[in-house]
Amino acid sequence: MRSLVTGAAGFIGSHLAERLLEEGHEVVGVDCFTPYYARSVKEGNLQGLLSRSGFTFVEGNLLELDLAALLKGITTVFHQAAQAGVRASWGREFEVYTSLNILATQLLLEACKGLELERFVYASSSSVYGDTAALPLSEDSIPQPVSPYGVTKLAAEHLCHTYAYNYAIPVVSLRYFTVYGPRQRPDMAFHRFMRALLQDDVIEVYGDGSQTRDFTFVADAVEANVLALECAQPGKVFNIGGGSRVMLNEVLDTVQEIASRRARVKYIKSQRGDMKHTLADTTRAVGELGYRPRVGLKEGLKAQWDWMSACYR
Amino acid sequence: MGLDERLLPLRGCLNKRKEKDMALKKELLEILACPKCVRDPECTGELEYREKEEQLICHHCRLVYHVKDDIPVMLIDEASPLT
């Protein structure tokens, strides 16, 4: 099997590429190193991959690349590339999000028309739901994103459906719920918390910390991608969550316990676009993909803490 | 302190790059084409690989794409004019 991983230098994409190599895939990775966070961090994500046989990497932008050439011999596509970040997606920056999240996805799908693809897995997001649907969030809830980022992820998800419906591209969309673990992006909450602890800095928490999330360890999100290859009925959307709803303040307590350090916490204004609560109903993924999250929050936080301690030592 | 400054220690943790040891793999060269040529139906996007110079050259667009640390950088903005 020969797989294309877009966003291969990113947090989830790099873990996924490693896992696919272990599964015996040949992997072509592509990434355009958008400047959302430091390039050197993404280069670090790639370190373990670049020297491995079976892995090739191209620095390029899906909006520019000759995708027909890139897709030669590819049997599975894992489209992980996106402009990340809910809070940064307002204002003029929205254009970047529409380009990299919507237009790039459409070009990739267009290039996949007529190919003998076994699977096209799209990395969607819980941010498509917004705040109106009842918890736990089911795939049948009407998505109403509360951030421009969520709008672009939903639009791209709809494009995947459109191309699956009209051109029989075997798409599976995975709605990730707040993924964390080693290599987590520097702007994400756990990374910010742990970095502040390691650098004896103040932890800034958006809102009062009572917001709840369904946190998903990165290896579980990666496992969902592998399981999506075996999905009997493509064309569907699946929630991929970690299996429990946890308040942000509880996470802070657990991180302090793992670190054996006390944090200095400052609560600041909540950010526009942030959802108040998320909790995935994973019934569909469990039933149809055989998905079961394996890593609990404490174990996952410990893994991220160990990684961050090594990085920031 | 900006985010990039706070990340400085993270940069320090990165492993040293592997020694430069190889030319671009054949299978990689087969999937590369000039991105600027994509919209030109008369152009194949064919690239000439100059291993020693670490360059991929599109003679049609007269652009040079660079290979940095064994990674082909197929970004139009990063390409240089062919002189």
Written description of the protein model:
The complex is a heterodimer of chains A (313) and B (83). Chain A is α/β, with parallel strands linked by helices and 313 residues long. In chain A, 39% of the residues lie in helices and 18% in strands. In chain A, helix 5 links the parallel strand 5 (119-125) and strand 6. The mean pLDDT of chain A is 95. Chain B is α+β, with helices and mostly antiparallel strands and 83 residues long. Chain B has a domain at 24-81: N-terminal domain of TfIIb (Single Sheet). Chain B contains three helices and five strands. In chain B, strands 1, 2, 3, 4 and 5 form a five-stranded antiparallel sheet that branches. In chain B, a hairpin with a 2-residue loop joins strand 3 and strand 4. Residues 11-20 of chain B have low confidence and may be disordered.
Keywords, separated by commas or semicolons:
A: 313 residues; alpha/beta; two-stranded parallel ribbon; 10 helices; 13 strands; globular; B: alpha+beta; N-terminal domain of TfIIb; 5-stranded antiparallel β-sheet; 5 strands; 20% strand
Map the helices and strands.
The complex is a heterodimer of chains A (313) and B (83).
Chain A: E1 2-6, H1 11-22, E2 26-31, H2 39-50, E3 55-59, H3 67-70, E4 76-79, H4 94-112, E5 119-125, H5 148-167, E6 171-176, E7 179-180, H6 189-198, E8 202-206, E9 212-213, E10 216-217, H7 218-228, E11 236-240, E12 246-247, H8 248-259, E13 264-268, H9 283-289, H10 297-311
Parallel strand pairs in A: 1-2, 1-4, 2-3, 4-5, 5-6, 6-11, 7-10, 8-13
Antiparallel strand pairs in A: 9-12
Helix pairs in contact in A: 1-2, 1-7, 4-5, 6-8, 6-10, 8-10
Chain B: H1 3-6, H2 8-12, H3 26-29, E1 48-50, E2 55-58, E3 63-68, E4 71-72, E5 80-81
Antiparallel strand pairs in B: 1-2, 2-3, 3-4, 3-5
Beta-strand percentage of chain B? 15-25%
Main β-sheet of chain A, in a few words? Answer: 7 strands, parallel
CATH level-two architecture of one domain in chain B:
Single Sheet
N-to-C order of helices and strands of chain B: HHHEEEEE
Major sheet details of chain B: 5 strands, antiparallel
Instruction: Compute the number of strand runs of chain B.
Output: 5
The geometry of chain A reads as: globular
Using the CA coordinates, give the radius of gyration of chain A: 19 Å
Number of helices of chain A: 10
Average pLDDT across residues of chain A? 95
Structural class of chain B: alpha+beta
CATH topology value of one domain in chain B: N-terminal domain of TfIIb
